[in-house]
Amino acid sequence: MVFPKNRYNFSFLVLCALILSFIGPLPLQAQGREGMKIIRDAEIEGIIRNWSAPVLRSAGLDPNTVKIILVQSPDVNAFVAGGANIFLYTGLIELTDNPGELIGVLAHEIGHISGGHLIRTRDALERASYESIVGTILGIGAAIASGESGAVPAIALGSSSVAMRRFLAHSRVQESSADQAALTFLEKAGIDPTGIGSFLGKLKAEALMPADQQSEYVQTHPILENRMDALQTRINASSHKGAGYSEDWRTKHALIKAKLKGFINPGQVAWAYDDRDTSLPAEYARAIAAYRDNQVEDSLKRIDALLARAPDNPYFHELKGQMLLEFGRPEDALASYRKALAIEPDAALIRAALGHALIESRYSNPADEQKNMAQAIQELERVLKEEPRYALVHRLLATAYGRLGNTDMAKVYLAEEAILQRKYDYARQQAEGVVNAASPDSKALLKAKDVLSYLEVHEKE
After folding, report:
1. CA distances from 166 to 123, 138, 176, 414 (A)
2. Domains of the chain
3. How many Å apart are CA 95 and CA 261, to the nearest integer?
4. Closest C-alpha to 388, from 415, 416, 359, 409
5. What are the tens digits of pLDDT across the range 161-207?
């Protein structure tokens, strides 16, 4: 899991310093308001993507064109923005009791995509990082709430939750339309629709509470009595009502919740799982909690025990790699990441982690360092084909190219990272530096010109 911890390993900071020595200061990474951050996790995204795939196909959408983005926040909400991107709060996932409730929420958001109820934001967000999308929406929401829509470009991140709620809220007609579309898609996909009803039933009582006590989901998805009645009528008529969800789906749902509990609230794991509970989710949560609490030997012992039970689980190998990387043992982490990729070769986020470990590893032989930097670049550039919005990958590529002495390519990737973060002045500075120094027809020169062309169109938006 690529989880925001607001820190890097010491060796990675040294690598960044090498680039800074000849490129200049790096822009700060964009974040949403306090307590709200983007999480990238191959396992959770993969599970949710597999669950949503039949629903998306039933809606006539290509599952490969819709992204599931996790937002670390205790709030309960989900929304679509910046194109076909479904932003899903961890607080919402934690509230669900079964996979059907989570799938029901996804089906509703897919109903918004299918119905064209997309949040209208500037075209520049098509090439923005997910952090920047959330930050921009916060800013637009604040401007609209204050009545100063002309100030939208200048609004800073960190606006109030109320502002975001107002901006994301759909009309009652759109909400009802998305409900009905969701039930149609679930029926076509052969999925029990009772989850969407039980989830909204949990939130129904909130509609009677003061606005400042309601969850963001209730604020942005008004739950009205007639809307619930219409939903229940369709649910009762479904040929799949009561079919339930497979044991595999239930286990994966439990693993998702265990992983989030371990990462976000490690201190609560002991209370959430009884000492006698030796299930895979319980042991998973304990291993992650030990890691988050920097209990090095205990966490490694626990992940090894999990691997003994499930040696073909790529995400257990990935977690061990992450532990070793964070504990300052990147050379040992390489083997775990490679095992994970051997089992799940299409996992771009694990491949990015492998590239990170290659960069952080220590080398006594310059030839080995050159070889591994070249491999890191190969892995990371492959990741960008699937994850072009992943700002950290651009930063890592800049680091790898810097280690090879290719300052022009390092500057290009810093410029591309800056575009994702909407740091346009910095992006122009780096790209112009390449244009003024790179050899004609070089890869760096062509990419730098592409950056400048993009900026000419979007810099003033």
Report:
1. 21, 10, 18, 34
2. 10-22+312-458 (1.25.40.10), 37-247 (3.30.2010.10)
3. 12
4. 416
5. 555 555 555 556 677 888 899 999 999 999 999 999 999 888 776 66
